Structure to design on (299 residues):
């Protein structure tokens, strides 16, 4: 009798819920590959002094434009600096600028968009017209104008003005998405209940609206990191971003493309591959995260 009872209990017992990380790996294999690449890049950037075979600033006049070899796996540049070491240390610049600018831009944009949708009326109209003005400029042009006006301000190895220049074009895009998400939340019963309870507007926006738009925030945050890395490389290539001798992927392309692309193509090839791989990994992870968090995609 006890065996029958235990069998029946096991039959009606709910299945064990798998950890969200395991579900993500099983349901989003491409996103998992992108996340793995991001983790490897982050670890290489954090432990760069222990991973890189050489000092990225060390000059070796006996190895000028040396081709890939056992001594220099990815070759060396026109100053004899090891390209692999500079790519590893350049990951610090790319990730720090990309993550900081995306975080700042998405946070400010989410707050502006949620506030605009919540209050509506003239406030919403004025904010949306300002956003239209910012969206009218191409992202690279707007970033170039900001970084040219602000100049350079390096704090703890990070150019704060460069981060600001990349974050500003992100703000209007995030604000538009946050506004549309907030419009669908503003008429929900729990928002009406919060108003009826006498909660302040600040508390309603910060405690009840912003936490409910975390999913689109995370999706755009990862997507904008890829755009920020590409934009930082573009600004450095144009001479408006990171300057020598700081290791940066875009700067490595700028310093070698004009004079050495024929006899030392590895000086362009490997930094370009690093930029492409980073952007591709973040885009893969962002798209998979969007599909995974979208309730319509759930099976």
């Amino acid at each position: 009798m006890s065996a029958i009872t235990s069998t029946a209990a096991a039959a009606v017992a709910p299945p064990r819920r798998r950890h969200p990380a395991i579900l993500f790996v099983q349901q989003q294999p491409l996103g998992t590959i992108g996340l793995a690449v991001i983790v490897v890049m982050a670890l290489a950037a954090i432990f760069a002094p222990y991973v890189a075979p050489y000092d990225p600033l060390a000059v070796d006049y006996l190895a000028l434009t040396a081709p890939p070899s056992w001594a220099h796996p990815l070759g060396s540049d026109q100053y004899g600096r090891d390209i692999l070491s500079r790519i590893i240390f350049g990951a610090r610049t790319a990730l720090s600028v990309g993550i900081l600018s995306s975080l700042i831009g998405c946070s400010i944009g989410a707050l502006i968009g949620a506030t605009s949708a919540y209050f509506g009326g003239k406030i919403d109209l004025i904010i949306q017209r300002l956003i239209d003005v910012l969206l009218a400029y191409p992202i690279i042009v707007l970033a170039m104008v900001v970084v040219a006006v602000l100049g350079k301000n390096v704090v703890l190895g990070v150019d704060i003005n460069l981060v600001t220049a990349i974050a500003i074009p992100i703000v209007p895009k995030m604000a538009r998405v946050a506004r549309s998400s907030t419009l669908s939340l503003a008429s929900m019963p729990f928002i009406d209940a919060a108003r009826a309870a006498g909660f302040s507007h600040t508390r309603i926006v910060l405690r009840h609206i912003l936490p409910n738009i975390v999913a689109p925030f995370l999706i755009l945050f990862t997507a904008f990191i890829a755009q920020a890395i590409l934009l930082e490389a573009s600004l450095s290539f144009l001479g408006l971003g990171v300057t020598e001798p700081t290791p940066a992927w875009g700067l490595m392309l700028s310093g070698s493309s004009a004079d050495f692309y024929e006899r030392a193509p590895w000086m362009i090839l490997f930094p370009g591959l690093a930029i492409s791989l980073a952007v591709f990994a973040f885009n893969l992870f962002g798209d998979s995260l969007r599909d995974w968090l979208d309730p319509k995609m759930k099976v």
Summary: The chain is about 70% helix and 0% strand. The first strand starts at residue 154 and ends at 155. The chain has one domain: 84-297.
